Amino acid sequence: MNKYKLKLFNGVSIVGAGLAGCEAALQIAKRNIPVRIYEMKPKKFTEAHKSPEFSELVCSNSLKSDSPEKAAGILKNEMLSLGSIVLESALKHRVPAGGALGVDRKEFSKYITNKIKEDRFIEVVNEEFTTIPFDIDKPLIISSGPLTSNALSSSIEKFFGVKSLAFYDSISPIILYDSLDKKHFFRASRYDESEGDYINCPLNEEEYKNFISELIKSEKTEFHSFEKIKYFEGCLPIEIMAARGEDTLRFGPMKPVGLINPKTGERPYAVIQLRKENKSESMWNIVGFQTKMKINEQKRVFKLIPAFKNIEFLRFGSIHRNTYLNSPGKLYNTLQTKKNKNIFFSGQLTGVEGYTESSAMGIVAGINAVRVFRNLEPIQFPLTTAIGTLLDYISKEDKKDLQPMNINLGLFNIEKPKKNIASIVSGSKVEISNIIQTIK
Question: How far apart are CA 249 and CA 203, in angstroms?
């Protein structure tokens, strides 16, 4: 990356063509401002990325609930109002997933990639961005994601003068539908009397306890002695959960609540759920089964599940290093850095967790980069919006040890938020409408 060429560019520069980077780019481009995206794929891939397409979904293919009365749904409605490309693509390439917004991940990414490449205001430079120019006088958005390269991570540390925090994240396996044993699963969504969107693989008490025992004993991915292991509580490997107690998984991703096996007329002791990955239903993701087991152990342990005895894996679970900023004290709630207000951070790198949350940060960074480029005051999203609560969470200086956070009703500073959901939804709509009028 030529830092002098970067300084001469009369537009907004973005690092990374992930969810946040693409959201930011299209927010800027639709206001007729030139955008240059630095994306190292396909010349260089991280440990977890496999596709040359932009906005690749590395972990689950679910963007969680889109119910308008849940925090995730409130956030989605705000993003849709602001013109989210991520949700536009998700809705176009939706696959049934009960109350969740599941997508065909290949078509989802392809659609966004085409939108970026077809936009006349956007230029994509396929090279690794390694150094932050501390004195840049045009907006620069760092959206390099939780798998930021070592070179750029080092530059970020130099820029802030402190070490970035790191945690480890893991991804679930994907299996081939035709390899499942049809005698040992049933289709249903929780509390739904008709055939649902999930494949449910029931286990009796003996099968469950045997599975947990082998899960705990399995060989795991080893870490280097200098690496500090710090998992995000919302995305724990299943073997870590299993080690916390025999019933942990049965009250977590393997809970049978709301599911009746039509073959027995009873609720199973435990259930493994599968969510479809594509519209043809040939690929299925094992829900909540992030794992750091070695590949041979995944083959051995998962085949203890009756429905999985002849299973064919399309993707094994794996573990990778995720990096994020300890944002409080470093970022304003506008996503500008306190060191240089022309430099923004967005996406999961800021300390939010989840696809939509990361995408929302890209929207904010894009909107505010436009404002800065035009010498206008950046937008501060109020705490009555879901986006505002996330920005407040990552930027408030009273947090010494930031933990990545999904959107949730608890972030809204309202007594008994579940009982006040109507006022939260109403307040969100009003404030987002006001913001839209301001940024037109």
Answer: 12
